[in-house]
Amino acid sequence: MGIHNRMISPFYISHPFTLFMYYTALFSCIFIFKNPFIILSLFTACCLMAMCYSGMDKFLKSMKWIVLIGAAVLALNILLVHKGSSVMFYLFKNPITKEALIYGLYNMLMLMSVMTAFISFNTLLDSSKFLYLFSNILPKTSFVFDMALRYIPLFKKRASDLAAVQSVNSEKVNKSVREKIQTYGIYLKALTSWTLEEGMDTALSLKVKNYGTFNKVHYARYRYTLRDILLLSVFMAFTLFIYIAAILGNTGFTYYPVTASVGLKDFNLVLYGVTVLVIYLPFINEGIASLKRGFVKLWLQKR
């Protein structure tokens, strides 16, 4: 579930465009920065966002396959890339270099950061918010993209629901392979019919709401607050700043033939400080809101 009461979370109830610009800034940093130390800080932020807004259970379930994919990327880079001047050892007469290891760690962290960021992205920018943002500009594209984002989690949830019902009704515990295949076939048939039926209901609902026209209505209306305007200004200015820094060549990092020092100096240190401040801004916002609620609670108790 994440935070205990999402309605008192200042970042969760922010305007959808503010949330979208935050993730635009976050993904821009992940793909633009090449320093493994900065990528590690971004990966930590993605994990904290997922734990805070999506819940520890969902985060741990997702991390099981995210870690496996990251480890596979790291292993493939070490085994297939033999560039670099620092040879650690030989494996099947192929050199295993330190540069390939560090670059593999960078690729692993970058990929894991993107996948982890989508855990909280799907929670903060749910279906209604995503369609609210893009249905006016790109109605068909936004609808297809939204369906793609929610398809696998929804399909898995329905499959687990059907399996739970069948486990209660089933009398036989130990089944043969043939019986298991027949059972899974029944699950697939039920899931397919369920999905098609809901697709028809969704299409009728969108038709009633005049989706794809200028007269359509939204389930919820969002208004900008002063906090939204301030956060939006910070995220937009930071994203522009990051792209300017990338154009000027201040976000790169040398891996081959000799890996550069991971330490941050001069402008890169300032860039790292600004990046951490902006990317971790939701947690600062949540902390300030928690302190305000605590002070108000103490003040009411004294009265």
Task: Give an overview in words.
With 303 residues, this protein is mainly alpha-helical. It folds into two domains: 6-135 and 223-302, no CATH class; 153-217. The chain is built from ten helices and two strands, in the order αααββααααααα. The protein has helices at residues 16-32, 36-53, 56-80, 98-124, 127-134, 139-169, 177-208, 226-247, 266-279, 281-302; strands at 87-91, 94-97. It has a two-stranded antiparallel ribbon with strand order 1-2. A hairpin with a 2-residue loop joins β1 and β2 (94-97). The longest helix is centred in the middle third of the chain and has 32 residues, at 177-208. It starts with 15 loop residues before the first helix and ends with a helix.
